[in-house]
Amino acid sequence: MELLTDINVRRTTQSKIAEVDFADLEFGKHISDHMLVCDYVRGEWKTPHIVPFGNLVANPSTLALHYGQTVFEGMKAFRMNDGRINVFRMEKHYKRFVRSLERMCMAVVPKEIFVEGITRLVQLDQAWIPEQQGNALYIRPVVFASEAKFGVKVAEEYRFIIFTGPVPALYADPIRVKVERDYIRAARGGTGYAKCGGNYGGAFLPTLQARQQGYDQVLWTDARENRFIEESGMMNVFFVINDTLVTPPLSDSILDGITRDSLLTIARDLAYKTEERPVSVEELKNAFATGAITEAFGAGTAAVVAPIGTIGIDGEDYALPAYTKMSISSRLKLKIDRLRSGREEDRFNWNYII
Ligand code: COI
Q1: Residues 98 and 227 in one domain
Q2: Cβ of residue 235 lying under 6 Å from some atom of ligand 1
Q3: 130, 146, 167: which is the final residue of a domain?
Q4: 176, 251, 316, 330: which sits with the fewest CB atoms below 10 Å from its CB?
Q5: Looking at the structure, do residues 150 and 253 belong to the same domain, yes or no?
Q6: How many domains does the chain have?
Q7: Rounded to whole angstroms, how far apart are CA atoms 53 and 275?
Q8: What is the CATH number of the domain that holds 195?
């Protein structure tokens, strides 16, 4: 790819890669050697710099620390079968990043800085891409309001950073989730569809309480009636009911998940029946009573598919059949893995080869 953006590069003289045990990765623990930093000042984005990864110096009045103007993305790079590097669904991640930034009134990072920044950074730190199937180099672009001024206002200065780190697949084993009827994640007209920091921070207390009750995550319900399922923890959610793959429809309270879209597209291509429609807690209970529900799973970039083994509804636990290689979710996950690694043709044009 021919690069259009000027990017200054200062390489590290002390790589930390020898400190990583690639056979025993932990999500979020290791960060690759370099990061990209780009500032927005006086109405324009300055030249991006790739520098050794390190701490930032922050003025305590930095606006993001007070009023929450922060937006991030999460995406993955893979080493393909033929040795090339693939950043999965770069275009769709960028579009969502823009939507999130716009919702939070933040300066929009130009596409060439996003795309070429990721390209250069991943190329430079390509030794950090795990080889093991299922593992990946996680890419974390983040923008925050960097203006140092504590008046309550839309910031006029922003900092865009990209860093990466090797990760394993999250939630490989079935999880226990609890239908959350008291707390909510997002309401109509709110920020639920944006990938802004507050959506995650606000979820910690209910999740912690669910953990104390023996669950791993919560199944979020709608803000108006606490009746319809919206998401699972920090992921979208799918059910297999009467052999149909069902997921709640997108709205302003549901994140437009890239994995959600990939799974739906692949499922339709494989001629599975799919439905994007509201799923009520009542419907789930009935589906357990009749045996119509055979699978439930979270879907997100970090985990791809997080199988759900048990759903707690109003104090009662409902068990799902065992997750096996024959599960629809397992087949769809395998298909995504094959497509991303180049073992299968990229029919949907999702691979961004760098
Ligand atoms: C993902 O599933 O990739 C997410 O967005 C969760 C992330 C905060 C780790």
Answers
A1: no
A2: yes
A3: 167
A4: 316
A5: no
A6: 2
A7: 44
A8: 3.20.10.10
* Residue at which a domain ends, from 145, 167, 189: 167
pTM, to two decimals: 0.95
Same domain, 129 and 13: yes
Same-domain status, 155 and 181: no
* Segments in 134-246 forming alpha helices (H): 197-201, 204-212
* Distance of CA 140 from the midpoint of ligand 1 (Å): 10
CATH number at residue 81: 3.30.470.10
Q: Is the CB of 74 under 6 A from ligand 1?
A: yes
If phi over 0 gives left and psi between -120 and 50 gives alpha, with beta otherwise, what is residue 106? beta
Instruction: Confirm or reject: Cβ of 301 under 6 Å from ligand 1.
Output: yes
Q: Are 126 and 164 in contact (CB under 8 A)?
A: no
In tens digits, the chain (354 residues) has pLDDT values of: 455 678 999 999 999 999 999 999 999 999 999 999 999 999 999 999 999 999 999 999 999 999 999 999 999 999 999 999 999 999 999 999 999 999 999 999 999 999 999 999 999 999 999 998 889 999 999 999 999 999 999 999 999 999 999 999 776 789 999 999 999 999 999 999 999 999 999 999 999 999 999 999 999 999 999 999 999 999 999 999 999 999 999 999 999 999 999 999 999 999 999 999 999 999 999 999 999 999 999 999 998 999 999 999 999 999 999 999 899 999 999 999 999 999 999 999 999 999
Range of the domain at 20: 8-167
How many angstroms does the Cα of residue 6 sit away from the middle of ligand 1? 30
Residue 314 domain flag: yes
Q: State which ligand 1 atom lies nearest to the alpha carbon of 234.
A: 6
How far apart are the CA of 142 and the centre of ligand 1, in A? 13
Owner of token pair 């033929």: 82
Locate the ligand 1 atom nearest the alpha carbon of residue 303 and give its number.
2
CA of 259 from ligand 1 middle (Å) equals: 10
Give the residue whose CA is nearest to atom 2 of ligand 1. Answer: 300
Same domain, 185 and 254: yes
Picking from 177, 169, 210, the residue whose alpha carbon sits closest to that of residue 296 is 177
Instruction: Let me know if residue 346 belongs to a domain.
Output: no
CA of 73 relative to ligand 1 center, distance in Å: 8
3-state helix, strand, coil in the chain (%, to 5): 25, 30, 45
